[in-house]
């Protein structure tokens, strides 16, 4: 039996991380949580996540800087961005760099689920 897809959740707000992890697990997926982009980059992973949900506004490394680091390293997987401070400039930048979705916080569960399922349905 194939292992369930793994969704990485990168957000500096522990409550958001736990809520998203609970939602992801309720869909039958595995969830790995990280409190920062740097924590994700330093993690020892056997394989890449199937998808990532990342906050944009985080201290030390913003979500869009995390995306830039991943793209520069050749690490490509769907990224769903969420932010409480959506701007057209950030949206354009992350989408041009290959982001899958750009959502404003708070987002309803159905919208997040649709983004995750659509991201997982696309070929790598």
Task: Describe what you observe in this structure.
The protein is of the alpha/beta class. It has a single domain, classed as Response regulator (Rossmann fold, 3-Layer(aba) Sandwich). Helices cover 41% and strands 19% of the residues. It has helices at 14-26, 37-42, 63-72, 88-96, 109-121; strands at 6-10, 30-34, 51-55, 79-83, 101-104. It has a five-stranded parallel beta sheet, sandwiched between helices. It comes from Methylopila turkensis. InterPro entries: Bact_response_regulator (IPR050595), CheY-like_superfamily (IPR011006), Sig_transdc_resp-reg_receiver (IPR001789). Residues 6-120 form the Response regulatory domain. It holds the Pfam family Response_reg.
Write the layout of secondary structure elements.
Layout: E1 6-10, H1 14-26, E2 30-34, H2 37-42, E3 51-55, H3 63-72, E4 79-83, H4 88-96, E5 101-104, H5 109-121
Parallel strand pairs: 1-2, 1-3, 3-4, 4-5
Protein name: Response regulator
InterPro entries: Bact_response_regulator, CheY-like_superfamily, Sig_transdc_resp-reg_receiver
Modified residues (4-aspartylphosphate): 55
